[in-house]
Design goal:
Elements: E1 8-17, E2 23-31, E3 36-40, H1 69-83, H2 91-102, H3 112-130, H4 134-139, E4 148-149, E5 151-155, E6 168-172, H5 179-199, H6 219-232, E7 242-246, E8 259-261, E9 267-269, H7 271-284, E10 287-291, H8 299-309, E11 314-317, H9 325-334, E12 339-342, H10 344-347, H11 350-362, E13 366-370, H12 380-387, E14 392-394, H13 401-417
Parallel strand pairs: 4-14, 7-10, 10-11, 11-12, 12-13, 13-14
Antiparallel strand pairs: 1-2, 2-3, 5-6, 6-7, 8-9
Length: 425
C-alpha cells in the first residue's frame, strides 16, 4: 500500500438527531485508498461552564434554535480544506491543526461538535486502514483492560422530573470476575429494581440516560431501594455490587455558594453541611465513588471533601475539570479530587482527551470515562475506554439502545481478547 492510500481525500458532515431528539453531527471521512468511515457526536445537558462549546444555529425556526447546520458548514467549509491530503494516522497533528484553525480557548469558532466529529472519524479511519481494532490503534498492543460498567439505574436532578437531588445513582459490579459477568450483575439488578418499583406502584419510566425516575421521598430512599434490589438480585451490597453517585451539585448551588436540596426538600446547606451529609451516607450505604459532590466553583470545598473522604472513595471531578488539562493541573496541585470524569465532547478532540487521561495517571489519579445524556448509537467510547486503560466507564442503563451499543461493543472486545482480557476495579 502506497503512502497516498493513507491520505484524507474527503470530509463531509450532516445533521442527525441524538437520543433526546436534538440535532447533533455525523461526520464522514474518506481516504484515497477507498476507506470510508463515519463518527457521530454526543451532546450533554448537565454541562460545566468551561466546557468546549457546541456550535448551534440559534435559529428559532429550526429545532428551537438547536440546529447543527452551522457546525456542518464549519466541517465542510473550513476543516475539510485544511485537512485534505494529510496522513490520517497522524492523529495528534490533525487534532492540533483543528485546534489552531479554531484559535479559541473553548473551540467557539469551529464548535467542539464539529472538531470532535472529525477527530473521531480520523481515529476510526486510521484504525481501519492500519488493519487494527480501534482500541488497539489508539491504545497499542497492550490495550486489554475492560472497564467496570457503572450503570445508571436511578435518575434525579436535571435528568428527571422527580423529588431527588442527586442526578445519578449507579450500580458498580466491583466484585465480578469479568466485564461480561459485571454487566450481567448490574443488568439483573436493574430489572429487579423495576420489579420493586412496580410492586410499590412507583413509576418505571426512565430519564435521559435510561435509569428509572420514580418520585421518592428523598435521596436516601433511592439508595435504600438500590440496596434492596442488589440483595433481591442475589448479590451482596458493597462486596459484589456497590453504589456510585453523581450529585451534579452545580445544578443546585445557589448564587451565594450554598446548596439548595430543593427537589428532596432537604433544605439549604453550606459546603460543610454537604460534607457532613456525605459522612452520614458513607457510613450507611456502600458508596465507592462520588462525582461532583460540590459545585464547579467550590474548589476549596472539593479539597475539603477529598481530604475527608479521598482515602475511602473515588472523588470524581466533572464540571470542575471539564476534561481540560489546565483545570486538572490545578486540581492536582490543590488536591481537589482523586479522579477526573473524561468526556470527549467536553474538550473536543481525541488527543486532548487522551492527554487528560495521561495527566491523571501521572498524578496517581484515576480517569472515569463517560457518555453524555444526549447520545448516539456510535460506540467509539467503548474502544476509547479500553485504549486508555481507565478501569471504569459509565454509559447509562440497560434500557436504551444508544447506551447498550457501548456495553455490547465492550462484550465484543472482551470476546476478541479472550484470555488476555483484564477486568478489575
Amino acid at each position: 500500500m502506497g503512502q497516498n492510500e493513507f491520505q484524507i481525500s474527503g470530509i463531509e458532515a450532516m445533521e442527525i438527531l441524538d437520543s433526546r431528539g436534538n440535532p447533533t453531527l455525523r461526520v464522514f471521512l474518506e481516504l484515497k485508498g477507498g476507506v470510508r468511515v463515519s463518527a457521530s457526536v454526543p451532546s450533554g445537558a448537565s454541562t460545566g461552564e468551561n466546557e468546549a462549546l457546541e456550535l448551534r444555529d440559534n435559529d428559532p425556526d429550526r429545532y428551537g434554535g438547536k440546529g447543527g447546520l452551522e457546525a456542518v458548514a464549519r466541517v465542510e467549509g473550513i476543516i475539510a480544506p485544511a485537512l485534505l491530503g494529510q496522513d490520517v494516522r497522524r492523529q495528534a497533528l490533525l487534532d492540533r491543526m483543528m485546534i489552531d484553525l479554531d484559535g479559541t480557548e473553548t473551540k467557539a469558532r469551529l464548535g467542539a461538535n464539529a472538531v470532535l466529529g472529525v477527530s473521531m472519524a480520523a481515529a476510526r479511519a486510521g484504525a481501519e486502514v492500519s488493519g487494527l481494532p480501534l482500541y488497539k490503534y489508539l491504545g497499542g498492543a497492550m490495550a486489554r483492560r475492560l472497564p467496570v460498567p457503572c450503570m445508571n439505574i436511578l435518575n434525579g436532578g436535571a435528568h428527571a422530573d422527580n423529588s431527588i437531588d442527586i442526578q445519578e445513582f449507579m450500580a458498580v459490579p466491583l466484585g465480578a470476575p469479568s466485564f461480561t459477568e459485571g454487566l450481567r450483575y448490574v443488568a439483573e439488578t436493574f430489572h429487579v429494581l423495576k420489579g420493586i418499583l412496580k410492586g410499590r406502584k412507583l413509576a418505571t419510566s426512565v430519564g435521559d440516560e435510561g435509569g428509572f425516575a420514580p418520585d421518592l421521598p428523598d435521596n436516601e430512599a433511592a439508595m435504600e431501594l438500590i440496596v434492596e434490589a442488589i440483595r433481591q438480585a442475589g448479590y451482596r451490597p458493597g462486596v459484589d455490587i456497590a453504589i456510585a453517585l453523581d450529585s451534579a451539585a452545580s445544578s443546585f448551588v445557589t448564587k451565594n455558594g450554598d446548596y439548595d436540596l430543593k427537589w428532596s426538600g432537604a433544605g439549604i446547606k453550606d459546603t460543610a453541611g454537604i460534607i457532613d451529609l456525605a459522612a452520614d451516607w458513607l457510613q450507611r450505604y456502600p458508596i465507592v465513588l462520588w462525582e461532583d459532590p460540590l459545585a464547579e466553583e467550590d474548589w476549596a470545598g472539593f479539597t475539603a471533601f477529598t481530604r475527608r473522604f479521598g482515602n475511602k472513595i473515588e472523588v470524581v471531578g466533572d464540571d470542575i475539570f471539564v476534561t481540560n488539562t489546565r483545570y486538572i493541573k490545578r486540581g492536582i496541585t490543590e488536591s481537589s479530587a482523586n479522579a477526573v470524569l473524561i468526556k470527549l465532547n467536553q474538550i473536543g478532540t481525541v488527543t486532548e482527551a487522551a492527554d487528560a487521561v495521561r495527566m491523571c495517571r501521572a498524578a496517581g489519579w484515576r480517569a472515569f470515562l463517560s457518555h453524555r445524556s444526549g447520545e448516539t448509537e456510535d460506540a467509539f467510547l467503548a474502544d476509547f475506554a479500553v485504549a486508555m486503560d481507565c478501569g471504569h466507564l459509565k454509559s447509562g442503563s440497560a434500557s436504551r439502545s444508544e447506551r447498550l451499543a457501548k456495553y455490547n461493543r465492550l462484550l465484543e472486545i472482551e470476546r476478541e481478547l479472550g484470555a488476555a482480557a483484564e477486568y478489575y476495579w
